[in-house]
């Protein structure tokens, strides 16, 4: 999409298709769309045409009052004001409206058998450290130790070697490292690589349920809507390798509280997993004599070509 400043500069001298005068509820939508359709980027024009159409339709359908609209603007302003590099309130807004899940479904469609995606959430960090397979990702002394063993394959069942895997989870109190400025470096997260067999494995802690950040505008809105702010116990994963569609997903613990009412609509049944008791064979193979809990999961990545084919077919399908 073209830079908004460049697009505005290029179109500043162009003649407006419709006059901006004597506007009312019957003609303002068409006029605003005409003003926003002068740039050279066709995709940008299409997006803004549909955005204006639906926003105006929303106002008309609800008979939106000035007081209600100003309350909404004040709420959006408050969301922006509370944002920091480690407090991404607007991502959480997208999450609680289900928009993050919807956009991921649109951008990353999955062929049969591929692991489903879910939301990124506001706590992914580019400051995560590179880790070797078998390393400890979480150093929370209060967390219940867990060893995680995973396999990554393509949709044909072939191992995917050399994939970059981001992993992150909250601590035993339900807080991420980004919420703790006093921590000396990142914790509860790491970047691993799959080996020649497509495997990666690491030590962590058993995830716990937790509330999303609700001490700001998002929390106020959830309370007003009568909604709880909680997420079920889960662990985040993100996979990247050339030739494969990027996968952002998470694993959710079966039986966790809020599994059926996730505040950000991220749970999918195929991503719900069981924590097992560590068996002797696995403990010996990975040198984990003292860990009592084990999580195993096989991930399947779609290729770029498979995802692109699906995106094209969905884009042209009748609605």
From TrEMBL:
Residue ranges of domain Intradiol ring-cleavage dioxygenases in the record: 121-301
SUPFAM superfamilies membership: Aromatic compound dioxygenase
Signal peptide: none
UniProt superkingdom: Eukaryota
Residue stretches of biased makeup (Basic and acidic residues): 1-16
Catechol dioxygenase N-terminal domain location: 41-115
Annotated segments matching region Disordered: 1-21
UniProt keyword terms in alphabetical order: Dioxygenase, Iron, Metal-binding, Oxidoreductase
Family matches, as Pfam families: Dioxygenase_C, Dioxygenase_N
Cofactor annotation: Fe(3+)
A GO term for molecular function: dioxygenase activity
InterPro entries per UniProt: Catechol_dOase_N, Intradiol_dOase_C, Intradiol_dOase_core, Intradiol_RC_Dioxygenase
Gene3D superfamilies noted in UniProt: Aromatic compound dioxygenase
The UniProt record lists the keyword Oxidoreductase: yes
Record family assignment: Belongs to the intradiol ring-cleavage dioxygenase family.
The name this protein goes by in its record: Aromatic compound dioxygenase
Organism: Apiospora arundinis
Phylogenetic placement of the source organism: Eukaryota, Fungi, Dikarya, Ascomycota, Pezizomycotina
């Amino acid at each position: 999409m073209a830079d908004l400043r460049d697009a505005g500069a290029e179109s500043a001298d162009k003649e407006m298709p419709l006059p901006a005068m004597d506007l009312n509820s019957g003609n303002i939508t068409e006029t605003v769309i005409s003003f926003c359709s002068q740039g050279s980027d066709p995709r940008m024009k299409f997006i803004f045409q549909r955005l204006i159409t639906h926003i105006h339709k929303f106002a008309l359908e609800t008979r939106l009052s000035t007081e209600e609209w100003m309350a909404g603007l004040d709420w959006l302003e408050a969301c922006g004001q509370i944002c920091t590099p480690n407090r991404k309130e607007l991502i959480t807004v997208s999450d609680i409206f289900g928009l993050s899940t919807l956009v991921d479904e649109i951008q990353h469609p999955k062929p049969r058998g591929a692991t489903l995606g879910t939301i990124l959430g506001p706590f992914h960090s580019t400051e995560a450290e590179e880790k070797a397979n078998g390393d400890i990702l979480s150093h929370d002394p209060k967390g219940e130790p867990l060893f995680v063993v995973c396999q990554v394959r393509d949709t044909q069942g072939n191992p995917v070697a050399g994939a970059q895997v981001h992993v992150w989870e909250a601590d035993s109190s339900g807080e991420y490292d980004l919420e703790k400025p006093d921590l000396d470096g990142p914790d509860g997260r790491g970047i691993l690589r799959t080996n020649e067999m497509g495997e990666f494995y690491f030590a962590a802690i058993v995830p716990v349920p937790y509330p999303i950040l609700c001490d700001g505008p998002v929390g106020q809105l959830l309370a007003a809507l009568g909604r709880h702010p909680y997420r079920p116990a889960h662990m985040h994963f993100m996979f990247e390798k050339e030739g494969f569609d990027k996968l952002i997903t998470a694993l959710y613990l079966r039986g966790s509280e809020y599994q059926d009412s996730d505040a950000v609509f991220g749970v999918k049944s195929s991503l719900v997993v069981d924590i097992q008791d560590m068996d002797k064979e696995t403990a010996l193979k990975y040198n984990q004599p003292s860990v009592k809990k084990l999580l195993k999961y096989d991930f399947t990545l779609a290729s770029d070509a498979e995802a692109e084919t699906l995106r094209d077919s969905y884009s042209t399908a009748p609605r």
